[in-house]
Hints:
Helix content is 4%, strand content 40%. By secondary structure, the protein is mainly beta.
Amino acid sequence: MSIEKKTIRSDIPGHSSMLNSSNTYAASSQEESRRLIVGREISLNGDIGCCDHLVVEGTVNAQGFSARRVDILEAGVFAGSAHVQDAVIAGRYEGKLTVSGRLTIKSTGRVTGEVEYGSVECEAGAKIEGRMTVIPAPAATAEQPAPAASVASDNDNVENLFDNSDEESTEERPRVFRRAVGY
């Protein structure tokens, strides 16, 4: 009877945890288990559920896709609709995209359709065709303190920088400057 030594592949996600572990079937981390990688020359059509991070190097056609992050690599194509927290597009996106956080479009990226975003970063050479709409920031809550009342003046937006305690006095005196300028 001969004993075969199994080789653990370091290029497969989740297998790196097995290198230093005595347990051959150690579970991968939660983040790695919820990452979907669609490789080159692979086409995926349909619904994608329970995915935190989608990496597209092939072709994906999905409606109503929702995730924390999507990365579309240079060779990747995503067609359909998606709602994500953050997105990095170096390939092609066609359809409706809602990014509540940061949308990054690389120089090789092509976006066609309707895009809503919290913040956007476009590199030189990126192409966008369609409608871009910024998602408004959440309104201030009532729990925030009201701004401090300004010193009485003719214009409420101007703060009085001089001491006017003796305004009724008719004699001319130099006015005292109350605020240190430049500090």
